[in-house]
Specification:
Strand order of the largest sheet: 2-1-3-4-5
Distance between the termini: 68 Å
Structural class: alpha/beta
Helix content: 55-70%
Number of domains: 2
Radius of gyration: 34 Å
CATH topology of the largest domain: Hypothetical protein af1432
Number of helices: 14
Length: about 350
């Protein structure tokens, strides 16, 4: 043992207390923390550091059983071994002590050999418990480090995929970043869990990754799309969902959901699966609002950029039709706090 264990000794008989203290020191394994008054122990409890305790049963002001109950009330003492010293052999007393949290008994008058043997045994038990606790803490740290590294790799994969999604279209690349930030803001405004808010902001940039499967003559067309071209463009939602589907990575699973559902509408007239209402995953409902808003305030060869007010009014007007009303309410609160000058996208 590198560090001596501390034994809390409580006995109102000072002679007995001194004897136990000397026997503890003679083991070479432990050092005593001695009290002759159980009420003083209770008063000092938050500051007392000990590994196991030896408590006399019969003491003025508070019995050993009552003291054990007080010791056990403190979370740090729940699993610490406690021995009761008593000259009473009644089964009822021993049962009460066990129920209070005692682990073993010593008989008065104290036999030095028995006492020393019990102390050594308990010291070994405490040392094993300490090593197990250290091992558990080490394992937790290792697991946390591994999970953190895995998370960083997942985020890098998502970043690379996002770059790939916008490789052929600079407008798409800039749009994904702004749209993702808005998704995070809306989620936070809806009081979603911090993990969800973080993940949706990380996953949302891949909502248009399916555009890698769209023909260049359609994707890069500098004018309005004809009906057949629009039908082909709409395939990007399904393609994106298929690309990302089936991953064991939580972020990619969320990205798949967003890619597949961000063009669904609250009233069921969206695509590709015509889902309606709360049948659309929340991430898709949030992404739908953020995606349309950023598209409206962005200039394109075939359209002017709408003003922030025009785009905001449109989102509000589509509440309950195109968009989830709760998402729209959250979006409007977010938009109200933003500076209009920073919202107009190139």
């Amino acid at each position: 043992m590198n560090q001596k264990l501390k034994i809390l000794l409580v006995d109102d008989n000072r002679t007995s207390l001194m004897l136990m203290g000397k026997l503890v020191e003679q083991t070479g394994l432990c050092s005593p923390v001695s009290y002759s008054n159980p009420l003083a122990v209770v008063e000092d409890l938050p500051r007392i550091d000990f590994d196991f305790a030896v408590v006399d049963y019969q003491m003025p002001g508070m019995s050993g059983i009552e003291l054990i109950a007080e010791l056990r009330r403190h979370p740090g003492n729940i699993d610490k071994p406690i021995v009761v010293v008593t000259g009473d052999h009644h089964a009822e007393l021993r049962l009460a002590a066990l129920q209070a949290g005692a682990m073993e008994f010593l008989t008065k008058p104290i036999d030095p050999v028995e006492f020393t043997t019990r102390v050594r045994n308990l010291a070994r038990l405490c040392e094993v418990q300490r090593k197990l606790a250290d091992r558990a803490a080490w394992l937790r740290a290792e697991v946390d480090a591994a999970v953190g590294e895995l998370r960083r790799r997942e985020e890098e994969i998502i970043h690379r995929l996002t770059l790939a999604a916008g490789y052929k279209d600079e407008d798409t690349a800039a749009h994904t970043i702004r749209m993702a930030r808005m998704c995070g803001d809306i989620a936070r405004e809806m009081n979603q869990p911090p993990e969800f808010c973080r993940d949706i902001e990380l996953a949302a940039p891949m909502h248009d990754i399916g555009k890698v499967g769209i023909r260049d003559d359609v994707l890069l067309k500098r004018g309005r799309l004809e009906d057949p071209e629009m039908e082909h463009m709409r395939e990007h939602a399904r393609i994106g969902g298929d690309i990302l589907e089936g991953s064991s990575c939580d972020l990619l699973q969320l990205a798949s959901v967003i890619a597949m559902t961000h063009h669904e509408r609250w009233d069921g007239t969206g695509y590709p699966n015509h889902i309606s209402g709360t049948g659309i995953p929340l991430a898709g409902r949030i992404a739908a609002v953020a995606d349309v808003y950023d598209a409206l305030i962005s200039s394109r060869p075939y359209k002017r950029a709408w003003s922030v007010q025009e785009a905001t009014d449109y989102i509000a007007a589509q509440s309950g039709r195109q968009f989830d009303p709760s998402c729209v309410e959250a979006f409007l609160r977010v938009a109200d706090r933003r500076e209009p000058a920073t919202e107009v996208a190139a």
